[in-house]
Amino acid sequence: MGIRSGLILLGILGLVMLCYAQEESEPAPTPAPEPSIEIRELIDSPTAGCLKKGQYDFELRIFPQGGVLAGFAVGLFDRFSMGVSYGGINIIGSDNVIWNEQPGVLLKYRLIEESIIMPAVALGFTNQGYGAWLEDMVPTRNVQTSRRYVFKAKGLFAVAGKNFQIMSLGTIGFHGGITFNAIENDDDQNIDAFVGIDKSLNEELTVLAEYDLATNDNGDLSVGKDRGYLHASVRWTFAEKLAVEIMLKDILRNMKNSTNPSRELRITYTEAF
């Protein structure tokens, strides 16, 4: 080995030792903590948020006509979660219980993670609609309709969402997606779309709103009358685990024979294995 090569080798070795010593003397920066719970659903519409691997949640919805819908979801992987749900009407009250025709299923895969530039994107499927199953409700509603939920399930969906931090004013998220319900399509078979927003007021309170164009709910046998569905809610989250939410649905009174918006309650508990 020549003198020049030896000096170069000693220089490289000295530089490596200097960098190592500097790294040991300076503590590693603490990474910013990630939120343990993402907003995975607005009011009725899914977002690109997913349960992390090992997270699970229980959800309970209470809606008009003594309706109760219970659901369970689990994160199998960081990008993939699935869930089941089941319920009916007259569960609260003295009338005979009318169960939903079938259990609901949710599958969601986050295709693209959110970055500074790119929104998060998720694909999925759900056959769980909201409100009463209308097949047995036609005589009491005096409306001819098809076999479906009051608020149709999203079916196949592709959604995107982007979140922003507004200085000390909390976070704001924008969401949108397209859906296609191939199950509840006796009355209207169009592709549907929605947009939504969530805004944190503090570490516990969040307001949410969504507008569903309801382009798949405008046929002669449909429930809607071509105004779309506007929903809003206020969510109160305790210790990032228990959330209680008051929802106001169909604010535009798009539903035929509707006189007032629907007032509903949702309770969600999220935990990890």
Describe the structure.
The model is unreliable at 3-10, 15-36 and 138-143 (pLDDT under 50). The protein folds into two domains: 1-30; 38-272, Porin (Beta Barrel), CATH 2.40.160. The strands form two sheets. The protein has a twelve-stranded antiparallel β-barrel with strand order 1-2-3-5-6-9-10-11-12-13-14-15. A two-stranded antiparallel ribbon has the order 7-8. By secondary structure, it is mainly beta. The longest helix has 23 residues, at 3-25. It contains two helices and 15 strands.
Radius of gyration: 25 Å
Element pattern in H and E: HEEEEEEEHEEEEEEEE
The computed structural class is mainly beta
Largest sheet: 12 strands, antiparallel, barrel
In the CATH hierarchy, what is the superfamily of the largest domain? monomeric porin ompg
| Count of individual helical segments | 2
- The CATH C-level class name of the largest domain: Mainly Beta
Low-pLDDT stretches: 3-10, 15-36, 138-143
Described by its quaternary structure, the protein is single chain
CATH topology name of the largest domain, in short, is Porin
CATH architecture of the largest domain, by name, is Beta Barrel
Shape: globular
Distance between the termini: 59 Å
**Fraction of residues in helices?**
under 10%
Provide the residue-averaged pLDDT: 85
